[in-house]
Amino acid sequence: MKTFRKFSLLLIGLISFSLLFNSCRDDDDDGGDTGDTSAGTIKAKVSGSDFKADGQMAMATYVAQGKMLTIYGTDMSGRAIQIIINNYDSSTGTWKIPNGTGSIGVVGSYIEASTSGSQTWVAPYSGSGEIGEVKISEFAANGSVKGTFSFKARNQNDNSNFKEIKEGSFNLTVKSY
């Protein structure tokens, strides 16, 4: 229960922190190809290992008034990927991590939860430069969101520990608030 509480507090903290910043997108691209990602799924390669979350373990939420899109998935072993796009304007396109304006508009995180202690890797991080992107190819506020993502994240407890999140894609139903 303590692990879940820590994980919940971390998740709330990440969302709250990301609300403080704006997002910017690159308009020259109409989003990513989700390939063979089935409906209700988020998948990726995490430092070479397969990650897949589906069903009730994968979700997308959109807060229209706050202009925030959150894409989230947890697999059966307690690993999770979360992407937050702040100042999201319901359009397709490419959002860089970080966005190049000096603010943190897009946050990507990877979490390994366990009873012995959870580890969290986050992008962007201090001095990271451009280390990833999220491409939205389809979005409907009360429909679905589809796209691709990749990012390099740094461990919150060890600045020399990184995870490469590659070949990420999602095809999720959007819950709007």
Automatic annotation (TrEMBL):
Keywords: Signal. Residues 1-21 form the signal peptide. This is Lipoprotein. It comes from Epilithonimonas mollis.
